[in-house]
Amino acid sequence: MAAIAQAQPNIALIKYWGKRDTKLNLPATGSLSITLAALWTRTRVEFDESLRHDELRLNGSQDPAARARTSACLDLLRRLAGTTTRARIDSCNNFPTAAGLASSASGFAALVVAADAELGLALDRRTLSALARHGSGSAARSLFGGFVSMAADHRADREDAVAEPLLDAAEWPLAVVVAVTSHTRKSVGSGAGMERSRHTSPFYPAWVSGAAADLTAACAAVQTRDFAALTAVSEHNCLKMHAVMQSSQPPLLYWSGTTLDCLQCLRALREREGVEVFFTSDAGAQVKAVCLPGAVTRVAAALADIPGVEQVLISGLGEGAQLVNDGEAI
Ligand code: PMV
């Protein structure tokens, strides 16, 4: 018996960067994301009494480096099921892995959904979201589709550090054009990068104290479908996060020259031609252009023309993590 789940990565418009508690992986800042449709991770989980430790294959190869994090997340589900049986996990992505395209978000969301089914736990979405958060903070959001918010925890029992659906994908069908400027893995992962920023960036306290206002403004812009307001708060929030990264010690500079060319191009499209698009970028050199569906062709063509852009991916907004049929290839 095995269970297979599929999850889509999500792109944060209001960013989570920094932890309040590293052990429970609690975010210091709330976040707002959109779940994509066209990019996915599929993960097959099979528990097997004969295994001495969990086995993880990522995109067809053994991945001992990612195994510890995966096992730690699975341990939480095993504890709930009252078992210590190890698992064989086979996971693959249809997009570049660990390169700033949120593969850990879709990866842990798919993992908890498949493991939950395989262990017969039937946990609710909020609980699955909290479990995925232990693997990767952003993974908590990929349990849901469309627009998803996640508050920084304030309650003493920490139970509010889970994601919540805000608006369905169909209710405001935005599109995302991703400019892939590098297929290489990032040199500093987001977990280590956040800790570096928390301990060393002089801007970190201001970043954390401004996060709640950005989240409120962005949620209001989504509820009222106000693209101009969402543009303003999202780009500002993204640039503030990169200012925190860049002011860390040693500095975290995830962007390349091509990244910056993409950002300038998108601003020019908006300011000079009135194209409804804004940029965002995470812990990697890729650029995500969020736009209204009518702007996709123009935005994709402009990004594809920039020297150094290796690939352009186009996606609408999609659903949260779900089980898939055994027959579907992984
Ligand atoms: O969930 P993590 O540990 O992969 O961190 C995500 C960090 C950002 O992608 C930069 C921001 C976010 O909220 O997704």
Would you kindly provide a brief summary of this structure?
This protein is 37% helix and 22% strand. The protein is α+β, with helices and mostly antiparallel strands.
Question: So how many helices?
Answer: 8
Based on secondary structure, the structural category is alpha+beta
CATH architecture of the largest domain: 2-Layer Sandwich
CATH topology of the largest domain: Ribosomal Protein S5, domain 2
| β-strand number | 16
Bound molecules: (3R)-3-hydroxy-3-methyl-5-(phosphonooxy)pentanoic acid
In N-to-C order, the SSE pattern is: EEEEEEEEHEHHEEEHHHHEEHEE
Number of domains: 2
Distance between the termini: 16 Å
Low-confidence stretches: none
The largest sheet has its strands arranged as 8-7-9-6-1-16
* Computed Rg: 19 Å
Proportion of residues in extended strands: 15-25%
Largest sheet: 6 strands, mixed
Overall form: globular
Portion in helices: 25-40%
What's the CATH C level of the largest domain? Alpha Beta
Q: Mean pLDDT across all residues, rounded?
A: 94
Descriptive overview:
With 330 residues, the chain is an alpha+beta fold. It has two domains: 3-168, Ribosomal Protein S5, domain 2 (2-Layer Sandwich), CATH 3.30.230; 175-316, Alpha-Beta Plaits. 37% of the residues lie in helices and 22% in strands. The chain has eight helices and 16 strands. It has helices spanning 64-81, 103-118, 125-135, 190-200, 204-223, 227-246, 257-273, 296-304, and strands spanning 3-7, 10-14, 19-21, 26-27, 31-35, 41-47, 55-58, 61-62, 87-93, 147-150, 163-167, 175-180, 277-280, 287-291, 311-316, 322-324. The protein has a six-stranded mixed β-sheet. Strands 2-5-10-11 form a four-stranded antiparallel β-sheet. A hairpin with a 2-residue loop joins strand 7 and strand 8 (61-62). The longest helix has 20 residues, at 204-223. The model has no long low-confidence stretch (mean pLDDT 94). The chain binds (3R)-3-hydroxy-3-methyl-5-(phosphonooxy)pentanoic acid. (3R)-3-hydroxy-3-methyl-5-(phosphonooxy)pentanoic acid (PMV) binds at residues 12, 15-17, 31, 104-105, 136-138, 190-191, 282-283.
